[in-house]
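Anyone able to model this chain together with zinc ion?
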Amino acid sequence: MSLGGRGHVPLRMCAGCGGRFAKGSLVRFTVFEQSSGRTVVLDRSGSRGRGAYTCLNPDCLEKAIKKRALVSRLRAAAVSPNLMEEFQRVLEERARG
Ligand SMILES: [Zn+2]
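re: yes, here you go
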């Protein structure tokens, strides 16, 4: 699996399917401290604190939520209730370019 190209592309694992992808093909999640506890949120800045990733497939996010992969990876109590909506919004923004 040689991609040629120049330089080293750091790969991150999708918490849903377990596949490895370049950072540009992933959405990043981080943890946000709320009074109700640590909550998994979408990380638009791409560099806040501890991170976890899924690829751009909504099924992967759903899987990662269901099997609590994001929660355990980020040591959070729960995922944000509108995480899926935010994810969809990011996908739309990226599709638009
Ligand atoms: Zn995936």
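The first strand starts at residue 11 and ends at 13.
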